[in-house]
Amino acid sequence: MLHSSPRSVSLLPSSSSAGLRKLLLPGPEVRPLLGRSVHMEPSRWAGHNKWSKVKHIKGPKDDARARLFMKLGLMVRIAVKEGGPNPLFNAALSSLVEQCRNHNMPKASIDTAIRTAEKAKAGAQHMFEAKGPGGCVLLIEVLTDNNNRTHQDLRYLLTKNGGALVDGARHPFERKGVVLAEARGMSPDDALELAIEAGAEDFICDQAELRSVRTSLEDRGVHVVSSGPEFVSRSPSLLDPSQLEAASALLEALNNHSDVMRVWDNIQPQP
């Protein structure tokens, strides 16, 4: 059941490019297991923060590229298992395939992930809550076939890097449907007006409606880069430069773990 909330649309500048804007639409209530969360971009594994110049956001290297393709392939399998292998009828898969292409993942690798999805044992998805340097809050989304092992690994990485697993830390985040689109010279007001015209004003985000808003925006000439459910911070943790460096090291360690799919944070640099 969807959780009813005040209906509004907000617009945030993208951390990845000055020419991109995110249209944020109120979404369903947060659940412990994120069966529909398949959105992934390497420069935004840390969630929707605006500290893109911190060292954990790097250019692609061979090992990082291999890890990215592996995780994208696993997420394609999850999307296929949940919604079927046809992107025309599976909005999550359609968005993820587009992201794979944007990251130059070979078509053969994408096709293989889709073909083997129904036979593969993708494991179970879990969400861990944690605190990091400076009191920042982290949501760690994992895909694992051994939750006890993953729990121990994450606890070790967090302890080693100034963090800890905690309970009840999810309150700084809201679950929202997110459409990432190229602004192409539009002002934030113009982009917001287009979103409202597309049906985003009175929107409660489920998968079907998110796809209809995306389609409506595309019909109005907006190039949509991706769309899907995400966690968006509503209560940032302000970190000083030394805390940002420590948080960067922690996020890098977490993202390098093979079971970790994404890490959402509420980090924001102090003014």
UniProtKB/TrEMBL annotation:
One of its GO terms (cellular component) is mitochondrion. It comes from the Eukaryota. Residues 126-267 form the TACO1/YebC-like second and third domain. Residues 49-118 form the TACO1/YebC-like N-terminal domain. It is found in: Mitochondrion. Pfam families: TACO1_YebC_N (PF20772), Transcrip_reg (PF01709). Its main location: mitochondrion. Belongs to the TACO1 family. This is Translational activator of cytochrome c oxidase 1. It comes from Muraenolepis orangiensis (Patagonian moray cod).
